[in-house]
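Exercise 4. Each item below gives a protein and its sequence. For each, produce the structure-token representation.

Item: ABC-2 type transport system ATP-binding protein (Streptomyces olivoverticillatus).
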Amino acid sequence: MKTKEKTEAGPAERTTTVTARPEPEPKAEGKPAAPAVEPAIRITGLRKTYGDVQAVKGIDLDIAPGEVVALLGPNGAGKSTTVDMVLGLSKPTAGGITLFGKDPYIAVREGLASAVLQDGSLIDDLSVRETLGMISSLHKNPMPMDEVLRRANIEDIADRRGTKLSGGQRQRARFACALIGNPQLLILDEPTSAMDVGSRRKFWESMRKFTDTGRTVVFATHYLDEAEEFADRVVLMRSGTIAADGTVAQIRALTAGRMLRASVPDATAKELGTLPGVTGATLRLGQAELHCEDSDKALRALLTKYPDAHDIEISASGLEEAFLSLTAAEEADAA
Ligand SMILES: Nc1ncnc2c1ncn2[C@@H]1O[C@H](COP(=O)(O)OP(=O)(O)OP(=O)(O)O)[C@@H](O)[C@H]1O
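Answer:
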């Protein structure tokens, strides 16, 4: 595993890159026979422009077979545009993509790669089972129907038509459509956005079983807890570039420092923000969150100035803080 930090010159293209590829697990018995040498996804110099909008500004990315990668970024960062190109649904303006060494269109046609997209639809006049049966007939090595229904947690709605499904049920049915071809690479664009808490949990349990078989998953999400819990690597996009790339721990570490939380009566965020050791402060209903470069110094200063402060907690900065800090850099660049 190698770690490297790189800061490029131009502000719009500035990139903090931690390259840290978790070694893929050795192949267990029964794992799909992916070609060992080819990356599951190789992206080189990828660009996409829509008129004046540069949605993707020249990104390079390798994803190894067996990796589970979360694609994060604020709205408009270029995640969906990248995913569409990876799946061969839209053409790059420049650059190249291969999936297991093949053109994306061919890899998808051969059933090597499959996707759950934000706006995919089902066939309204068919039941979920019938739709799955139809898709299954197009594939060489489909997953058995019972296994798909179980993995996608849709056994109870298999005989319902597409029109009779709720948003979360449709999302699970679309997941089943992606699974039925038995793909080695699954790409998910905000896969749980319409799901309730229970369905989200079941979805990720099922996904864990899927990746335990050595397959590759790339998912775009706005739920940082999903990335934190599930991904072994995070790629953070910002303004069409890759702002950070590494394990969750490495991305977290990009925002050095700690978070000090406390109940602080009679304070203002401005005063708290000027305490020694504190780099930023928020205050809501007496609950303070202090971003600290030196939490020991900050704690001493806090208790000296506010002896009534209580319920104090100090923790390492989380992925959310890293995300906010790395995307705040974008706002600063834009200003
Ligand atoms: N078909 C299109 N025509 C013109 N501009 C587009 C098109 N699709 C995307 N864009 C623009 O490209 C940029 C990247 O959009 P994209 O949908 O890839 O972002 P995203 O990271 O997926 O955002 P979100 O999290 O909101 O889904 C945005 O500025 C968007 O407005």
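Check: The pocket of adenosine-5'-triphosphate is lined by residues 50, 53, 55, 73, 75-81 (CB under 6 Å).
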